[in-house]
Amino acid sequence: MPELKEGVINSVRSDVRNITTNKIRAVDMEFRKIDGLLRLTLGEPDFNAPELVKKAMIKSIEDNESHYSTARGSIEFLKAAADFLKRNYDLNYDPRTEILSTVGSTEAIFSSLSTILEEGDELLAPSPAYPLYEQLAHVNHTKMVYIPTNDTNFVLTPSKLQNAIEQHPRAKAIVLTYPNNPTGVDYSVEQLKELATVIAKTNLLVVSDEIYSTLNYVGKHVSIASLLPEQTIVLNGVSKSHAMTGDRIGFVAAPRDLISQIVKIHQFAITAVSNPAMAGAVAALNQGDALTEKMRQEYMKRRNYLIPEFKKIGFDVAAPDGAFYLFLKIPADQNQDDFAFARELAHKALVGLIPGSCFGPGGEGYLRLSYAASEETLHEALRRLQNYLA
User: Fold this and answer.
1) pLDDT digit string, tens, across residues 293-310
2) Signal peptide span per the entry (predicted)?
């Protein structure tokens, strides 16, 4: 096997060498090596893709749709995404000029942030936050600025946002993820109106990551784009809503002048999205609402079971508004180093959870549990934790 010539590694950009790998994936890979471990680590639905999605993908293959799509995506997919946003969130986007297909919401984040960020900028985000944002800020020579929310029940308040804007005049954008990963916090229309009022006085762009928007347990999800369309980039997709993580289909919606810029980065990175995957996503978005609702009900059932059970064994946990995570405060009588405690539970209780520190400031002393797992797995994981902590 070839080994790189000594010194040639310096040809790699220093900012790339200095970023870390995905911490969530790194922990998951570490824990995979433990025999008998129950992994509640990754945010991946335990359901399989719906049959209507599989049939649409097979038909696409049989119809020889193996050629390039356009950079923006098939018109059928773009229309399906526009209809999904209109039907669920009363958002109005022209499918031909204001929506872009992407390789999952991850590429949507990458292409959007890489389009708007440059050296010297600052990127705001409530913390705890999904770690990808910080790494992409670093690659784009942008400073990540976390706004701590652990003292406001993980909710970004208007006063916190206003203070952050005043203290960071070079802020170019703010990332809002809701329902949030890892806390499950969602925002009401009243809360969003207050945030929108602050943002409207600035030229900040809102990168609104709404990939968990269909998994809301406390009311109807509201997109901040319905209040601030002229300053918002909406990110969404079918990975979580339709159990299609491996098909890698997401989309970006924004004013046409912004989409026309984002598409440049997108096409240089991936050329075009897979036709069979888009065909499956069209079926999911157009015909899959009832299936999504069935999954939502199952997740809510798991959530409602787990919360009181974890409180019984000493974990403080706020009921998440959406997504499929519990953000667990480590009991006071246990090791407060969340990485050390996660490893302790993995090796001794054989339950794999993600350390809260993976999600930035404010995550210290917490663990994230994904309940996108079968009832049997969750019952057994809880039994193991109860026995170990007892």
Assistant:
1) 999 999 999 999 999 999
2) none
Give the end-to-end CA distance of the chain in Å, rounded to a whole number: 50
354-355 β-sheet, strand order: 325-329, 366-370, 354-355
DSSP H helical segments within 202-274, as ranges? 256-270
The pLDDT tens digits of the residues spanning 20-46 come to 778 899 999 999 999 999 999 999 999
Contact 344, 14 (CB under 8 A): no
Share of the chain above pLDDT 70, in %: 100
Residue 73 has φ and ψ, to the nearest 5°, of 115, 170
Which residues have a Cβ under 8 Å from the Cβ of 134 and sit 6 or more positions away? 125, 144, 360
On the CB side of 340, CA atoms within 13 Å amount to: 5
Sorted by where each begins, the domain ranges of the chain are: 8-48+290-389, 51-288
0.70 exceeded by pTM: yes
Residue reference for tokens 């209040």: 227
What CATH code is assigned to 51-288?
Answer: 3.40.640.10
Long-range contacts of 8-16 (CB under 8 A, 24+ apart): 15/138, 15/139, 15/141, 16/139
For residues 285 and 238, the answer to whether their CB atoms sit within 8 Å is yes
Q: Convert 283-294 to b/e letters by CB count within 10 Å (16 or more is b).
A: bbbbebbebbee
Give me the amino acid identity at 105.
Answer: S
According to the CATH classification, is domain 8-48+290-389 in 3.90.1150.10? Answer: yes
How deeply is 5 buried, as exposed, middle or buried, from its count of CB atoms within 10 A (0-12, 13-18, 19+)? Answer: exposed
Residue 370 near residue 361, CB atoms below 8 Å: no
Q: At 242, is the pLDDT very low, low, confident or very high (cuts 50, 70, 90)?
A: very high
Q: Are 275 and 249 in contact (CB under 8 A)?
A: no
